[in-house]
Amino acid sequence: MRLTRLTASLVTAGLLGLSPVALSAPANAATETLATTTAVTTYSTLPITYGDEITLTSKVAGADGNSAYKGTVTLMVSTPSAPAWTPVTASETTYEAFKVKPATNAAYKIVYSGYTAVNQYEDTYLPSESAPFAVSVARKAVFETPGLLLVGKITPDFGKKKVVLKRKKGKKYVAWKKVKTNKKGQFRVKAPNKSGFRFSVTIPSDASFTGYTGFYQVY
């Protein structure tokens, strides 16, 4: 028992004689101010068809090559009818997938707010914005082929407008005829009763929509 008490007493005395050790932050922990690069991309194939949805993905990188995850990104849009940049939506996640349904041709960009460090372990990121990203939209065209007829309906805003038809001659398509739609954007055209006859149908482009061409053959 005495040995036990003596041992405990010696250990306690040894602990009391220890010097305290101070903890400090790593010498390289310091805030940097970094420029940023903002980008917007999509995996969708362009042009999209009127009524379809497209996903636009934002990404913000610092000058050190690392992603800047803090701060706000805002999706902006500009259209032919409203060219001034207008906010669509925002996110506090800088790597964000924005889903939109453009009603016409449009340009989109991402504006990054920047971020101010709140301690020495964070970096400060400067604001930036992406280059405009053009999204082309084609009108929706629905075609049916009863017999030798091609019956079509084109929306939106294609009433009383011309559809261009070309026939294939050799290796090229040459002028054949023009057909005007009714006020609902509908039209019909009859192909010649000739097997192998090939022709194309073109919905012309305008300021708001990208053109579309379909190809047909008589069997």
Describe the structure.
By secondary structure, the chain is mainly beta. The protein has one helix and 19 strands. The protein has one helix at 2-16, and strands at residues 33-34, 36-41, 48-49, 54-62, 73-78, 86-91, 97-100, 106-112, 124-125, 128-129, 133-135, 137-138, 140-144, 149-155, 162-169, 172-180, 186-190, 198-203, 212-217. A hairpin with a 4-residue loop joins strand 13 and strand 14 (149-155). The radius of gyration is 33 Å and the shape is elongated. The N and C termini lie far apart (110 Å).
Mean pLDDT: 89
Alpha-beta classification: mainly beta
Give the H and E element order: HEEEEEEEEEEEEEEEEEEE
Number-wise, the strands total 19
Strand content: 35-45%
Helix content: under 10%
Integer-rounded radius of gyration: 33 Å
Largest β sheet strand count, sense and barrel closure:
5 strands, antiparallel
Count the DSSP helices.
Answer: 1
Gap between N and C termini, in Å? Answer: 110 Å
Sequence stretches where pLDDT stays below 50 over 5 or more residues? 1-16
Shape: elongated
